[in-house]
TrEMBL record:
Annotated Pfam families: Csp
Protein's organism: Sphingomonas morindae
Name of this protein: Four-helix bundle copper-binding protein
PANTHER family membership: CYTOPLASMIC PROTEIN, CYTOPLASMIC PROTEIN-RELATED
Taxonomic superkingdom: Bacteria
InterPro entries reported for this sequence: Csp_YhjQ, YHJQ-like
Amino acid sequence: MSVRKMIALHPNAAGHANEPMATAAKHAMYCALFCTSCADACSAEPMDMSQCIRTCLDCADVCTAAAKLAARQTGDDAAMLRTMLTACIEACEICAAECDTHDHEHCRLCATMCRECAEDCRRARSTLN
């Protein structure tokens, strides 16, 4: 399955998709899953991981919202999308920094995914007018 193909099938897209935006949408959804999984794993750790759990869940929610906005083709609201992509970038950077403070493989993977998502969102944001 291809997010890019789905976006391109929208009547307003006329068979074309903004590749960086489609990639950002896809990776933001992946990032939301990684963050949710990391939060779940943190809840099973023997030490207090409450801050990491909160940060990961907040990041997951922001990533989910960003992915939804990035996939929409009806109408045009570049200002809203730019704001959401910026929020996603910042949330991912905050989450990556939090996960970096823990010595758990799930936190390392989450931090890596957050950094990748932030970079994809930067690329997508640069395509907006």
